[in-house]
Amino acid sequence: MNKTTILVVEDDRPIRNLIGTTLKTHDYKYLTAENGTEAILEASSHNPDIILLDLGLPDMEGVEVIRKVRTWSNMPIIVISARSEDTDKIEALDAGADDYITKPFSVEELLARIRVTQRRLAITQAGETQETSVFINGELKIDYTAGCTYLKNKELHLTPIEYKLLCLLSRNVGKVLTHTYITQQIWGSCSENDIASLRVFMATLRKKLQPDKSETQYIQTHIGIGYRMLRIE
Ligand code: CA
């Protein structure tokens, strides 16, 4: 059986044990590391499928671990942060983390985040086919080649910026993208003005994708952090 292997990086032993037990119960393989140095060593020697990374480590900042790992690998990293400060999460996401969970978190929440990441991983591993062809998510369809977007088989009329935003989010489906990352990709800069514009464009794009609250939500807002396209089952 091909079990998903998860590296748990956490210096707080009770939390580390809780996560370990949870993963084991749900049929995941796991490894543990108590500090950043161990984390980098374990990541490089065992090549886990996913890293769960506490940001506050005794020997280095968790964000340093992300930067190191990103020099050789794109393995998904879910950041676990006790701090409610958004700046830490933003720094971690910009350094290359895929998602974040804020302590205290529930076991269900943790498992849900892992499943989201696994699905994203499966899509990535299925090949880069979506780079050139068609993206389908629920009732949303994007034909990248033709530059057309359809919702429930009807063409959506998007402005060029809205379309660029949608493409960026869809190519990173399941992943939280920070305001800075998005504005850099779209406008090549990340001033206050860019972020304000982004909010406006995202509001209109979201309205086109979800004209009514009862309709499927495709884009999730992370207040003060950024946006994510949800993978629809
Ligand atoms: Ca800690």
Structure description:
The chain has 2 domains: 5-125, Response regulator (Rossmann fold), CATH 3.40.50.2300; 128-229, Winged helix-like DNA-binding domain superfamily/Winged helix DNA-binding domain (Arc Repressor Mutant, subunit A), CATH 1.10.10.10. The protein is α/β, with parallel strands linked by helices and 233 residues long. It is globular and about 50 Å long. Helix 1 links the parallel strand 1 (5-9) and strand 2. The strands form 3 sheets. The protein has a 5-stranded parallel beta sheet with strand order 2-1-3-4-5, sandwiched between helices. The chain has helices at residues 13-25, 36-46, 62-70, 86-95, 107-125, 160-171, 179-187, 192-209, and strands at residues 5-9, 29-33, 50-54, 77-81, 99-102, 134-137, 140-143, 148-151, 154-156, 176-178, 219-222, 226-229. The model has no long low-confidence stretch (mean pLDDT 91). It contains 8 helices and 12 strands. The protein binds calcium ion. Calcium ion binds at residues 11-12, 54, 56-57.
Q: What's the CATH architecture of the largest domain? A: 3-Layer(aba) Sandwich
Assembly annotation: single chain
Strand order in space, largest sheet: 2-1-3-4-5
CATH class of the largest domain: Alpha Beta
Note the overall shape.
globular
Strand content: 15-25%
Overall tally of structural domains: 2
Tell me the number of strands: 12
| Radius of gyration, whole Å | 18 Å
Distinct ligands: calcium ion
User: Averaging pLDDT over every residue, what do you get?
Assistant: 91
Number of helices: 8
Q: How helical, in percent, are the residues?
A: 40-55%
Say which CATH homologous superfamily of the largest domain is assigned: Response regulator
Note poorly predicted spans. none
CATH topology of the largest domain: Rossmann fold
Measured distance between first and last alpha carbons: 24 Å
Largest sheet: 5 strands, parallel
